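ESCALATION

Customer reports they have been waiting on this structure for their group meeting. Please prioritize. Original submission:
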Amino acid sequence: MATLRQEAEPDEAGLDAKALDRLDQACARFVDEGRLPGFLVAVARGGRVAHLTTHGRRDVAADLPVEPDTLWRIYSMTKPVTSVAALMLVEEGRLSLDDPLDRYVPAFANPRVYESGEGGDVRTRPAEGPIRIRHLLNHTSGLTFGFYHSHPVDALYREAGLESSVIPGTDLAQTVDVYARMPLQFEPGTQWNYSVSTNVLGRVIEVVSGQPLDTFFAERILGPLGMTDAGFHVTDEQAPRLSELYGESDDGGIEPVPGLPLRGGRPRFLSGSGGMVASAYDFHRFMELLRRRGELDGVRLLAPETVDLMTRNHLPGGADLRAYGSRPAHDEPNNDGVGFGLGVSVVLDPERTLSPTAAGTFGWSGAATTTFWVDPGRDLTVQFMTQVRPKTSLGIIPELRRLVHEAVTG
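Update from on-call: job pushed to the front of the queue and completed.
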């Protein structure tokens, strides 16, 4: 087991120690107000961690503190890992971004697109073209989530038992086949809708590689990068370090809520969309892989040009997320000036974002208010770990971005 440690003083890394103190104080207020149980925040420049703070509790009832080796449900921060896995197969010539999805998952042959109506009166038409692998990576596939409650197709997902994206008792292959029976919200490649696409991509990885998703991750990504605690479940030895998951209570505080079934052995459903657990050390290693454009400590997983492709905007017409009426990305309430690449968001126009940032910055967040970003221009990586699934945005991530931005001096 490896643990994240501070490796440099802030001033050595071009960071303002007083500004970082303000960052810690702002995050601590969320804990003191009872809106977060605890947190870990880490800021690194040039690969060296120059600021690392833990505060509060990983388990409030048991009075267990957040520590550098605490394990976190990273939810949608799993998506960039799955995207890297798919791009590795692309580089090996075993997969192409323009391949039709039904080549690997036959159930997606002849997709149909929603036209009108609701429930049993939904009318569809044949799609003009197939869902392609790139559509899964950039969420332009036409798939959706059942829990959105904003479109008639969302309701069809719920009727099929997909409100939580998986039918209880099924595995990835079985669940993906159910997705395939649902109509698409729009013609593939024409709009953006955050969806179950990355679960489907995980199934493609299984088919192409001939390995279960967790095995491929362990052998090709997690092991080579030394991400020793990351995976789809926790062992008995790891379990005491796992943070409790919380949700908002009716009185505005937090209370424990059910989370991913991480204990009790390997899960039947392997979610490339949101199923992983990791430590801060693990995710620091993954961020460093991306910051260094595909290589870390002599291990190269992707060519530099592939990471550049991954972290470039791929939305139709070069638009940003707000142009598609997109929903807030977890705790981030504003998508103006932010595009989407192959598994990560990317800042296009800093002037239009609500919190200070730099063009080319990329990253993503998770449903339990975790987030990360990589700022290539300033050799900066940031991660924030906590475990609360809020009903509405807590507003902490934009504040975090502002305060980190203020701390960068060099």
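Sent to customer with the following note: The mean pLDDT is 95.
Escalation resolved.
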